[in-house]
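Weekly modeling sync, notes
Attendees: S.R. (lead), two postdocs, one rotation student

Agenda item 3: backlog of single-chain predictions. S.R. asked that every request posted to the team notebook include the full sequence so nobody has to chase files. The rotation student volunteered to paste the first one in as an example of the format we agreed on. Action items at the bottom.

Example entry:
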Amino acid sequence: MTNHVSWTAEAEAKLKEIPFFVRPAARKKIEKFAQEQGLNEITVEVYDRAKQQFG
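Predicted structure, as returned to the notebook:
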């Protein structure tokens, strides 16, 4: 099973709004969230749902 999750340009742009020092952890959490949902692409919608879940 592959762990690769792709990001749309819009979702990447939203990720860049997160302070750089927490961005790697946020990226990991969002990718894990997407994988648990059976998704292999992170869109703005997926990003927003993940953010809602993590608060």
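Discussion: group reviewed the output briefly. The chain has three helices and two strands.
Action items: rotation student to repeat for the remaining queue; S.R. to check formatting next week.
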